[in-house]
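Re: [ENG-882] Designed sequences occasionally contain unexpected residues at chain ends

Forwarding the minimal case from QA. Structure tokens:
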């Protein structure tokens, strides 16, 4: 099975760089001048700080010189070097000159590791924000700022759906997830990843871990085994089962029929003649050696784990174009469909499913029609097709697309709730306080998170449906997942409370008068029962009054799902909450923890978490923690289970914090609590622009560069002029150069969704 497991391979690009000295290399006088002014004092033969010398570049072997330039390039870009404590600092122009020179030297040998890193979606916020949104920078951007061709990876959700459809077509019913009733068997998630994890649907290289590949092969064998074992009935067209149970070897024509069937379902196409011939030969050979059943399984597994099942490339696997090229109609349909639906389309069909009478229309249908009419060859054509689609009464707004919802899932990362487990004692405390239904306690770690996360999704869904001031409302809304405001919920609560109190008063009076009216014992017992029920209902109502709709709760960041997702199993985590705000809202960057630093907060049962975090104010810690801690500490108003609290260890909870070095002077300053913090962030243009940056990364599959300044500014302007419409933002991104134009396929340097 080694050959089967190696079907999914890693496409790697290696650099053939020699180690010989290159005597023709020379540093320009201007660069020498800059190095002498800002670098040699620490990095010459005498100082050699960090074991780095820059005064001998001309004498180094090529490989050594490129390694050194790669190390220095990143430090120059992020302004870590020269150190900020040095009095003499290069100007922005001088720093750019040094960076450009290093980039040019590295590009000569295709060896710039940092420029590759800049494209990693997980390595964002490095490009200066003020430059990305500077009109002067946009004016200097390339005429066409294209994106590299992408390799798309199938989402686990999509793969599971394809699995289920394949089994259903053969009369097999099988549990796909834990907790479901099983008829024929159980199949684990083959990717070995939680479907709620932060997965990206782009991959830029063929890459699956060995364990995942082995798991996929085992999963394929399990699928085939289930089909062979099943008893689907006489009308089922289960050819695999029929052939595996036959006493005689199959005919080549029957094998061909099964192979074609497999290709159509798993790869979405018919096999080419050489492929069909080769697969038929392999299957028949396996059957001769191992029998019908085992031989058929061994012969079909490679089809089910073929790279095409899990990866799809723009332009195909081989393309070397270097100049930006506009996507073909077929490629454009496919790209837009993926951008909206999380699915692979069949963009080459002459007619859409809707045209031939299948179901309600989707955006893709209108693109297919436009392509058939020769009107999908320009930005204007695509914009017109999108406008026509969303104006149709049965087509939802772009803001309600599946990928928009997934983007917000990943952006807020509140689905991490599934991975945080709480102890039973804490859950019991929540129940006693009336904040949890008892039924959820025993199954909290599998059932209850679904409820909490779905409520947050409900809140987000309502905002996307209305599609106005989307980002600000995501942070500041005071409506629940059903769209009810706090005032509505409070009114319903007061009405129900008044009804129960009136009932209690009535039945207490009836009981007091029962002796005078000589009512029977049965009547008295009934009155006592009704009175007790009303008293119990009132007590439960007072307990269950939703604290999450209290004045202190606003937006996604005070939802229980987000608070728990950004906590530990046993206590709050202001550091990571603050880091999230720094990176996702302010567009900042927090360096990784040095390996020499003990990053543990000391335990002390007599001190609050805020008091224990005083340790981070040490000289070696506060430089980074000042960027995070004051942003996360206001959320101490909530405990690690996301419930409101006033005290910790019998002391009043302190909720003060500070916005520091945000990039927007109007934002900087102290905040009294989470609501003030969130409202200030929601009103900031700087924060809204950072949100646009994250949207760009999600839909382009790469980090933004200065060349994308025009695209980002146009997207933000579209969002602003449309009263904060997510549809307008998405349309602007889908009609941008970065989305419409591609350079040649380049599998190197961009993270797969495993990163």
């Amino acid at each position: 099975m080694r050959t089967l497991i190696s079907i999914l391979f890693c496409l790697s690009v290696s650099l053939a760089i020699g180690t010989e000295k290159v005597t023709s290399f020379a540093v320009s006088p201007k660069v020498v001048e800059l190095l002498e002014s800002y670098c040699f004092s620490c990095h010459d033969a005498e100082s050699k700080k960090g074991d780095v010398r820059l005064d001998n570049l001309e004498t180094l072997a090529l490989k050594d010189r490129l390694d050194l330039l790669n190390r220095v390039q990143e430090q120059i870009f992020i302004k870590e070097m020269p150190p900020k404590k040095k009095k003499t600092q290069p100007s922005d122009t001088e720093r750019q000159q040094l960076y450009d020179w290093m980039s040019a030297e590295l590009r000569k040998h295709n060896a710039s590791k940092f420029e590759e890193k800049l494209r990693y979606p997980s390595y964002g916020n490095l490009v200066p924000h003020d430059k990305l949104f500077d009109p002067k920078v946009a004016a200097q951007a390339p005429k066409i700022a294209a994106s590299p061709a992408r390799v798309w990876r199938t989402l686990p959700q999509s793969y599971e759906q394809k699995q289920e459809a394949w089994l259903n077509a053969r009369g097999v019913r099988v549990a796909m997830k834990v907790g479901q009733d099983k008829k024929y068997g159980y199949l684990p998630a083959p990717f070995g990843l939680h479907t709620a994890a932060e997965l990206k649907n782009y991959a830029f290289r063929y890459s699956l871990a060995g364990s995942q590949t082995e798991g996929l092969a085992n999963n394929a064998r399990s699928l085939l085994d289930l089909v062979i074992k099943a008893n689907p009935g006489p009308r089922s067209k289960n050819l695999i089962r029929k052939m595996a149970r036959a006493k005689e070897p199959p005919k080549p024509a029957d094998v061909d029929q099964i192979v074609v069937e497999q290709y159509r379902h798993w790869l979405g196409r018919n096999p080419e003649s050489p492929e069909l011939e080769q697969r038929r030969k392999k299957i028949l050979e396996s059957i001769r050696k191992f029998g019908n059943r085992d031989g058929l399984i061994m012969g079909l597994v490679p089809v089910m784990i073929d790279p095409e099942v899990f990866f799809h490339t723009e332009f195909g696997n081989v393309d070397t174009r270097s100049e930006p090229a506009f996507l073909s109609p077929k490629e454009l349909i496919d790209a837009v469909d993926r951008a909206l639906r999380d699915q692979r389309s069949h963009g080459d069909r002459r007619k859409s499913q809707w045209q031939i009478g299948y179901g309600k229309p989707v955006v893709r249908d209108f693109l297919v029609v436009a392509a058939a009419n020769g009107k999908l060859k320009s930005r204007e054509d695509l914009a017109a097709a999108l406008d026509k689609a969303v104006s149709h009464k049965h087509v939802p707004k772009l803001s309600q697309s599946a990928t928009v919802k997934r983007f917000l899932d990943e952006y807020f990362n509140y689905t991490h709730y599934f991975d945080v487990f709480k102890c039973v004692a804490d859950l019991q405390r929540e129940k006693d306080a009336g904040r949890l239904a008892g039924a959820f306690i025993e199954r909290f770690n599998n059932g209850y998170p679904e409820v909490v996360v779905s409520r947050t999704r409900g809140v987000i869904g309502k905002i996307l449906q209305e599609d106005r001031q989307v980002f600000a409302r995501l942070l500041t809304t005071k409506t629940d997942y059903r769209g009810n405001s706090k005032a509505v919920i409070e009114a319903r609560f007061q009405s129900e409370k008044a009804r129960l109190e009136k009932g209690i008063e009535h039945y207490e009076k009836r009981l007091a008068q029962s002796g005078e009216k000589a009512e029977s014992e049965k009547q008295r017992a009934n009155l006592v029962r009704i009175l007790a029920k009303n008293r119990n209902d009132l007590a439960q109502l007072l307990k269950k009054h939703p604290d999450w709709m209290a004045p202190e709760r606003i937006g996604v960041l005070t939802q229980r799902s987000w608070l728990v997702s950004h906590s530990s199993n046993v206590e709050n985590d202001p550091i990571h909450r603050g880091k999230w705000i720094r990176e996702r809202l302010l567009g900042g960057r927090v360096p990784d923890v040095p390996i020499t630093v003990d990053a543990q907060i000391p335990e002390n049962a007599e001190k609050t978490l805020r008091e224990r975090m005083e340790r981070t104010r040490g000289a070696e810690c506060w430089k980074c923690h000042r960027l995070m801690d004051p942003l996360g500490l206001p959320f101490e108003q909530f405990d690690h289970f996301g419930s409101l609290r006033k005290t910790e260890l019998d002391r009043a909870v302190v909720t003060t914090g500070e916005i520091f070095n945000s990039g927007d002077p109007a934002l900087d300053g102290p905040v009294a609590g989470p609501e003030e913090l969130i409202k200030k962030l929601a009103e900031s243009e700087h924060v809204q622009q950072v949100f646009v940056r994250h949207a760009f990364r999600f839909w382009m599959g790469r980090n933004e560069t200065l060349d994308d300044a025009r695209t980002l500014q146009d997207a933000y302007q579209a969002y602003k002029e449309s009263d904060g419409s997510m549809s307008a933002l998405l349309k602007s991104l889908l009609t941008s150069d970065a989305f419409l134009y591609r350079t040649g396929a380049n599998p190197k340097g961009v993270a797969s969704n495993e990163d």
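QA comment: On inspection the terminal residues look reasonable. The chain has five domains: 1-110, 151-313, 327-394, 435-549, 559-683. Proposing we downgrade this to a documentation issue.
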